[in-house]
């Protein structure tokens, strides 16, 4: 199985990748061509498209030049764009011939430094190639699940506070949700990874893959979620709220809306910070595992 490397503007390579992504068992909204195009436009990152025949592909985001060139993960990107057509048999992993192994080898030929976030149950190819492999965790909700799985506190909030808010879906609230996200980062003493105007541009480029939900308190947005989706999975992508019950109420509304359009899972995008993970746990999710793969010495951006 050979790996070919292309510029993202290569029409034939794009068509091959698009066909792969459409039928892949491992994919996400973050690995779509539409997302790559939007990220490239918003953040000015260079892109490479790696194709392992018709079985696997990767879109890489590059920063720097020469010895400083590295593969990076763009802001607000939960998973790197690694796409696998079908489950990989263990014997191919053990023979060092798995699609992931070939993609990693191809990445190594083009960049000495790389940073990837990979959703997989088997990161051994990276480990065997000398990459640093660190487990990370996320919570995932089934939109069809009963609120009976929620914690007692979350159920009580949903039962007693929902009538206090007007719940709606409206892309016109995009910038206000981003501003609330900025405020949420500030309360946790963290900087927003991208400028609000850049995030607004990114969301605008992805109009067919995003849905914006808001909980209004007397006409003001008290909580908002910009959901990124690929029509089968959705992600709690850009979100923020004022302190209080609004976000709990809004999540219940979003789950109902996602279920109505056939979304099978709602990824809450990380459970790696204790207080944030505890808030998400209240909705009765299952825990899922993904990995941070790192190669080479890294320079802070």
Protein model, in words:
The chain has 301 residues and is α+β, with helices and mostly antiparallel strands. 34% of the residues lie in helices and 29% in strands. The protein has ten helices and 13 strands. The protein has helices spanning 11-22, 33-43, 90-94, 99-110, 124-128, 152-161, 174-187, 196-205, 246-260, 274-281; strands at 3-7, 46-52, 56-63, 70-72, 81-84, 113-118, 132-141, 166-169, 210-217, 220-229, 233-241, 265-267, 286-295. Strands 1, 2, 3, 4, 5, 6, 7, 8, 9, 10, 11, 12 and 13 form a 13-stranded mixed sheet that branches. A hairpin with a 6-residue loop joins β3 (56-63) and β4 (70-72). α2 runs antiparallel to α8 (196-205), α6 (152-161) packs across α9 (246-260) and α7 crosses α8. The longest helix has 15 residues, at 246-260. The protein is globular, with a radius of gyration of 20 Å. The two termini are 35 Å apart. The mean pLDDT is 95.
């Amino acid at each position: 199985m050979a790996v070919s490397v292309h510029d993202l503007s290569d029409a034939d390579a794009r068509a091959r990748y698009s066909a792969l992504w459409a039928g892949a068992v491992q994919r996400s909204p973050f690995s779509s061509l539409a997302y790559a195009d939007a990220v490239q436009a918003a953040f000015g990152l260079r892109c490479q498209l790696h194709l392992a025949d018709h079985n696997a592909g990767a879109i890489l985001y590059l920063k720097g030049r020469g010895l400083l060139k590295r593969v990076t993960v763009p802001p607000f990107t939960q998973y790197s764009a690694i796409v696998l057509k079908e489950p990989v048999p263990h014997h191919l992993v053990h023979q060092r011939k798995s699609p992931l192994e070939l993609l990693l080898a191809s990445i190594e030929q083009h960049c000495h430094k790389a940073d990837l976030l990979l959703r997989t149950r088997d990161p051994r190819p990276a480990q065997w190639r000398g990459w640093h492999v660190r487990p990370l965790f996320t919570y995932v909700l089934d939109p069809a699940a009963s609120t009976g799985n929620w914690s007692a506190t979350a159920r009580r909030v949903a039962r007693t506070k929902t009538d206090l808010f007007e719940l709606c879906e409206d892309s016109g609230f995009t910038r206000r949700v981003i501003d609330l996200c900025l405020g949420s980062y500030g309360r946790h003493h963290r900087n927003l990874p991208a400028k609000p105007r850049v995030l607004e541009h990114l969301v605008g480029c992805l109009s067919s893959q995003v849905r914006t939900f808001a909980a209004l308190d007397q006409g003001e947005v008290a909580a908002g979620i910009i959901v990124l989706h690929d029509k089968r999975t959705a992600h709690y992508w850009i979100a923020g709220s004022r302190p209080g019950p609004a976000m709990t109420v809004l999540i219940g509304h979003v789950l109902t809306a996602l279920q109505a359009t056939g979304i099978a899972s709602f990824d809450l995008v990380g459970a790696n910070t204790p207080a944030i993970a505890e808030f998400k746990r209240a909705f009765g999710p299952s825990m899922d595992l993904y990995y941070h793969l790192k190669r080479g010495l890294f320079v802070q951006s």
